[in-house]
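User: hey, got a sec? need Amino acid ABC transporter permease folded
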Amino acid sequence: MTDTVDKTPAPSVPPEQIKAIPVRHYGRWVAAAVVIAILVLIGMAFSNADINYGIIPDYVTDGTILSGAWHTLYISVLAMVLGLVLGVILAIMRMSSNPVTSTVAWFYIWFFRGTPVLVQLLLWYNIALVFPILNLGFYKDEMNQVMTPFLAALLGLGLNEAAYMSEIVRAGIQSVDEGQTEASHALGMTQPQTLRRVILPQAMRVIVPPTGNEYINMLKTSSLASVVQFPELIKRATDISSTSLAVVEMYFVACIWYLFLTTIFSIVQYYIERHYARGSSRSLPPTPLQRLRKNLSRWGSFRRPEVAR
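Assistant: Yep! Here you go:
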């Protein structure tokens, strides 16, 4: 007789589940503790300092401070517009095949980027020491009457900004493929039409982000106009502190206004960048408002009870 062999397959034993043990990052905890300790020490130092925090909210909406904030806003806008217009012209001159115009543009950029804004403001404000009389042929007057603090601030900030904007615009124009220009010329478009209708609209994706950063920087750089007696925010805050002796408190007030203005224009810059990035191949990330709506809808669906059918 032959022995019968049991061919019943043995029950499969599942493999033991692997238990993953997370890596402990002790350095992160130490770094977090050090940062928190530093923040606590800074907070304690300012809380025990001789600062009258109670008057800060009153001066934030003071008429003199509001006037300074308004002057800061419009001098920065006008100087940025002047810098943008001149920057486009200088960028075109810089890329020109004409050696005279390209050399003049290079020299302008070299000079204004290589000298401090403060020095340029002081030069414009004291230009009457060099040219006491302004004589244009059809107009003649004393330079002291012409070169007001407003004009000195506008020229000092705007002409300096033009040097930086020209490089930004030039980089944006050069980012557009040359085939776009060739195709435009093949359609019979002139060089100005090609630049206005084809090149610049495509270059805006590259131009807009650094331009927004330049304007936010202009808001803060406009504080240097106080040295030429232009009544912007720092000048107004300094005038109040000289009579009230609340020096640090007025600087806190100025910081609040600068933070407010830069935050507003950072939001505007964000949506302008999204507008010009719509034609790119990359999908746009959701805006903060869209993310908020999505989270609220998820929360609403989670809290909504199911209806029995």
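Quick note: The chain has twelve helices and two strands. Let me know if you need anything else on Amino acid ABC transporter permease.
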